[in-house]
Design a protein that fits this description.
extended, single chain
Length: 109
Amino acid sequence: MTKIQVLSTIEPQARDTTAIPEASKPQPQVKSQEADQPSWSMRDVSLSESAQQISALEKKLKALPGININRIEAIREDIIGGAYIVDAEKIVSALLSLERSFVSQGRNS
């Protein structure tokens, strides 16, 4: 018998698609006293040093006069919505003006 004849005589085994692997079978619920209580509490939560610094900076920024939080939120929404239009010429002009002022201050000092 050739290899092809041997392979053609092999019958495929029926697959049981309803079988659930042992690991994914539902496990019986074991009720314990610890199950009713979370394994952590608010006392266990701590922020990293960086997160604490960022939080402190946010508080300081919000306390500064002249910051219009409502305007910032409106601009943020416009950016997200695609309605915020950037005037590149205006930005370049302002940057050049600022650079000129730094250069002139450096010469006068």
